[in-house]
Amino acid sequence: MIHVSHIAPADPDALVAAFAGTRWARAREHFARHLDEQQQERRVTFVARLDDTVAGHASLVWTSGYAPFREQGIPEVQDLNVAPQHRGRGVALALLDAAEREAAKRSTFIGIGVGLHAAYGPAQRLYVLRGYVPDGRGVFRHGEPVREAETTRLDDDLVLYLTKRL
Ligand SMILES: CC(C)(COP(=O)(O)OP(=O)(O)OC[C@H]1O[C@@H](n2cnc3c(N)ncnc32)[C@H](O)[C@@H]1OP(=O)(O)O)[C@@H](O)C(=O)NCCC(=O)NCCS
Q: What gap in Å lies between CA 86 and CA 123, rounded to an integer?
């Protein structure tokens, strides 16, 4: 049974514990900042529980740091993560559902960025199967397009942005 709610003051500690020791571990301050930004109505952070255990999280940010989304008023899903022991049970689908429902209150599109190396393979498949389409601008690093024939590093900062009509 998957339950998704908005992040609450007690959640940062549980989120830190859920991801401790994994490649996707975050400091408590990371989630505390999400809570602050949610209170300021800049972000909505969703926390998924599987049978009452915190299993994953995702955020919806109203003003994207990616200029094409920002200029078109497209809210962006950020920081979608499911703890490794809870993967493959529909938690990410439930989080995306919640983010898409929230975005639809203000926008006809939703956006997301995904890394290009294999650690993002499940996310790449998930987004395509879920109807997200590349935005047609190629890949970006730190907000700048990577130009044709340019040499770059295939790390977490090399991102392809996708959108979905809601
Ligand atoms: C990507 C991620 C969020 C998926 O979470 P999840 O809860 O396991 O995903 P779900 O169980 O909801 O799966 C939804 C669909 O995604 C696809 N998918 C998920 N994991 C997959 C995998 N390992 N291989 C291939 N497809 C996968 C499948 O199509 C799946 O649907 P199906 O099971 O009906 O075939 C999770 O693997 C994760 O946290 N990865 C590391 C962080 C990350 O990459 N975040 C995204 C940043 S952009």
A: 15
Residue whose CA is closest, atom 25 of ligand 1?
Answer: 122
Q: What are 20's two structure tokens?
A: 């401790």
Q: What does the pLDDT read at residue 86?
A: 96
C-alpha dihedral sign at 97, 29, 83, 48: negative
Condensed to tens digits (0 to 9), the pLDDT of residues 39-84 reads 999 999 999 999 999 999 999 999 999 999 999 999 999 999 999 9
Strand partners, 76: 61, 111
Top mutation candidate among 15, 78, 82 for ligand 1, by most atoms within 8 Å of CB? 82
Q: Helix, strand, coil: what percent of the chain each, to 5? A: 35, 35, 35
